[in-house]
Amino acid sequence: MAAATPSNPPPLLADPPPGSGTRARIRHAAARLFARRGYAGTGLKQVATDASAPFGSIYHFFPGGKDALAEDMIRTTGPQFMALVLGLLEERDDPVDAVVHAFDSAARDLVASGYADGCPVATMALDVVDTNETLRGAAADVFAEWIDGGTAWFSRHVSPDRARDLASAMVMLVEGAFLLGRTSRDPEPLRAAGRSMATLLAAAR
Amino acid sequence: MAAATPSNPPPLLADPPPGSGTRARIRHAAARLFARRGYAGTGLKQVATDASAPFGSIYHFFPGGKDALAEDMIRTTGPQFMALVLGLLEERDDPVDAVVHAFDSAARDLVASGYADGCPVATMALDVVDTNETLRGAAADVFAEWIDGGTAWFSRHVSPDRARDLASAMVMLVEGAFLLGRTSRDPEPLRAAGRSMATLLAAAR
DNA sequence: GTCTATAAGGAGATAGAC
DNA sequence: GTCTATCTCCTTATAGAC
Question: Which of helix, strand or coil describes residue B37?
């Protein structure tokens, strides 16, 4: 069954719907800033400003402060991103077509965001891996779930042990491609990653 | 020709040789902290402390301040890392063996550093890509050189157009594997990346 | 040249008015 | 609950003693 999801899902970090509550606006602004600038590079004052919320409201809704807000963002946007990718994969019947389509779609979204929005957790993960054990663990949980989810998807087309290596490769290629694409302001790495992923999948069948 | 380089090159961010000058110690401490904690997450006070140097010496040797120091680190450690990888690739005659060997060696180094040292520029690149155009450009230059260097190496074994996709895939897999490996404190992503890279190279020959 | 003290500003966090 | 003012600490950067 293909095309189970709409072919133009909203970007993960688009503006929040008008009329959203203060808490929702704070979460949205925080997700965007943390994803783009990392943990240390994001100031709570900026979060409040972007959310059009008073500074104190952050501590009203997130008594744990910056750490609690960041962990919430990692654990929320991580699964959202996986759902988005799995949705894209369902839009094509042939698995090789599906993989290439997902990477091409990611390339378009990256350009559309002005090369700002790639992986919602990678920037924060690298930022905190050496200094914040709680947030490192949260990011590790997210990546593990992605690989499990990817393994399940690839298992529909190849043997389980091969499926796991394919899922790992897919996550790594996505992350590497977002890093190169954002840094070079070029969508080509994502398309190249899609071609490589298609080759790997074809070789495993 | 194989084994052109020693089989145990010193880690990129090992301690500086005793008797190093103040400038060298500052550059070394900065390279390590920027690589591990990113740009915003690294304080110049910490750099001075780690370098056993007075705070003011940073501005004596780097009048441009934090930005100048960070750009120097990106442009210095980037080529060093490529040289290290190319050296590892020369230690095996068969190209598929060489690729697997390089990833296995990277996996060992990652574990040996306590999962602290992966790519010397990726953390900073993601940290600054949205906020500092100069440093973003420096990181983009480094990645472009890596892909050019990798394309030249793969061109010894496959056609030029295929060599470029292989080089891109290698950089992306390395970066993704370092991200997953550091975050999960697990060397397995680097080994999985090596297996995928071997598959891609074999498929391209 | 090496090093210290301080300036000026921004950070996270809190207290309390409304 | 919403919002403001402030507290304390830490940052980059500089001035100037030695």
Answer: helix
In this predicted model, what pLDDT tens digit does every residue of B126-160 receive, in sequence order?
999 999 999 999 999 999 999 999 999 999 999 99
Instruction: Band the pLDDT of A18: cuts 50, 70, 90.
Output: confident
pLDDT tens digits for B12-32? Answer: 777 777 888 999 999 999 999
- In a mutational test of the A interface, the residue from B183, B199, B201 whose CB has the highest number of chain A CBs within 10 Å is B183
Mark the nucleotides of strand C covered by protein, meaning any atom under 7 Å from a CB. Answer: 1-6, 10-16
Q: Are A62 and A68 in contact (CB under 8 A)?
A: yes
User: For the residues of A23-65, what is the DSSP string, one character each?
Assistant: HHHHHHHHHHHHHHH-STT--HHHHHHHTT--HHHHHHH-TTH
Name the maximum alpha-carbon separation found in chain B: 55
State whether the Cα torsion B157-B162-B168-B173 is positive or negative. negative
From A55, A91, A86, A56, select the one nearest A152 (Cα to Cα).
A86
Predicted confidence band of residue A9 (pLDDT cuts 50, 70, 90): low
* A44 CB neighbours strand C below 7 A: yes
Rounded Cα–Cα distance for residues B69 and B138 (Å): 12
> What structural domains and CATH numbers belong to chain B?
72-204 (1.10.357.10)
Q: What angle do CA B62, B68, B69 make, to 5 degrees?
A: 70
The answer to whether the Cβ–Cβ distance between A180 and B175 falls below 8 Å is yes
Closest nucleotide to the alpha carbon of B61, via C1': C1
The answer to whether B41 contacts A36, with C-beta atoms less than 8 Å apart, is no
Is residue A14 classed as helix, strand or coil in its secondary structure? coil
Measured CA B114 to C1' D11 distance, in angstroms: 28
Shortest CA distance from B42: residue in chain A = A40
Mean pLDDT within A9-34: 87
Closest nucleotide to B40 by C1' from CA: D11
